[in-house]
UniProtKB/TrEMBL annotation:
Residues covered by the Peptidase M16C associated domain: 120-307
Protein name listed in UniProt: Presequence protease, mitochondrial
Keyword annotations from UniProtKB, A to Z: Hydrolase, Protease
Keyword Transmembrane among UniProt keywords: no
One Pfam family per UniProt: M16C_assoc
Source superkingdom: Eukaryota
């Protein structure tokens, strides 16, 4: 259900985004959309915010799934759910044997009679009414107090201020000293080599079949007047198309083969020289090991050719 929820609402290619956000029916999804299994009865909700009251009804569909096949046993009784690769293989087999996800949509949403529709409109006089009620409540509380009660409250306020301004006793807090740290901790082993004139660091770790990629491009040649726009540049670049692919096709390609791609500003101080530091743009992504060539290909399509 988590996978199905992500496919329905995440990214510009998702069905709900294409049918609700792209046509400007609403400004964005309402809070709390998606699959929630944190309650006794798991639920899935979809809704919009920023809808014009006269043009479109604001609706939030909540489909409650009572199927036992969605619930799992507590993890303390078994560790088989931690075998990610086995669960992925089972998921692939179900996809190959038929329209598994489509059947789940029909079972849990279309044919599910357990749903709730909410229509929520803001009250334009809410803040004024709230202030009025607070003033009335304050007056009613004060009017019932005697002079002695007011003196007691005043003294308690002074005592509270003294406690808040007093130096805290931190001796009761847990603390760590250097002797608590094992000096024999093995450092992380990095392999250094040069590829096409670019220094590369490689670190092999047990990541459950996932490869993490991180690259930094220096901005030393970027004029100071333009550096203030780099955060905006990073945000826009991840939303654009590239080459012969528009932003929808490129987004679909990234979602199919990677866990997402991000671009952000980067600054790092030198480990020995306090006055030296490195500035650049940091690109990061991750994917399954088998999709590593596709991730590099998508990176090239996204950040190397002409953007539009």
């Amino acid at each position: 259900m988590v996978i199905l929820s992500s496919l329905l609402i995440s990214g510009p290619n998702s069905p709900f985004y294409q049918s609700l956000i792209a046509p400007n029916i609403g400004s964005d999804y309402s809070p709390g959309v998606g699959y929630d299994n944190g309650t006794r009865d798991a639920s899935y909700s979809i809704g919009l915010q920023g809808i014009k009251k006269d043009d479109y009804p604001m609706q939030l569909w909540t489909c409650t799934d009572h199927g036992d096949n969605v619930n799992v046993e507590p993890w303390c009784r078994s560790i088989r759910y931690l075998l990610i690769n086995d669960r992925l293989q089972l998921f692939k087999e179900k996809l190959a044997n038929g329209p598994f996800l489509q059947d789940k949509v029909k079972e849990c949403f279309k044919d599910n009679p357990h749903y709730l529709t909410l229509v929520m409109n803001p009250d334009p006089g809410y803040e004024t009414e709230q202030n009025r009620k607070e003033q009335e409540k304050l007056k009613s509380k004060v009017s019932c107090l005697s002079e002695e009660d007011k003196t007691i409250i005043y003294q308690k306020g002074i005592e509270l201020a003294e406690q808040q301004n007093a130096i805290e006793d931190v001796s009761c807090l847990p603390k760590m000293v250097t002797s608590d740290i094992d000096p024999s901790v093995k450092p992380v082993t990095l392999e250094h080599y040069i590829s096409a004139g670019v220094p590369v660091q490689y670190c092999e770790q047990p990541t459950n079949g996932i490869t993490y990629f991180r690259a930094i491009s220096s901005i030393t040649d970027t004029p100071d007047a333009l550096r203030q726009y780099l955060p905006l540049f990073c945000f826009i670049l991840t939303k654009m198309g590239a080459g012969n692919l528009n932003y929808l096709k490129l987004s679909q390609l990234m979602e199919m083969r990677t866990g997402g791609m991000s671009l952000s500003t980067h600054i790092s101080s030198h480990h020995s020289d306090m006055k030296a530091f490195e500035q650049g743009l940091e690109f990061s992504s991750h994917c399954l090991d088998k999709n590593l060539p596709h991730m590099y290909f998508t990176c090239g399509r996204k950040y190397l050719p002409d953007l539009h």
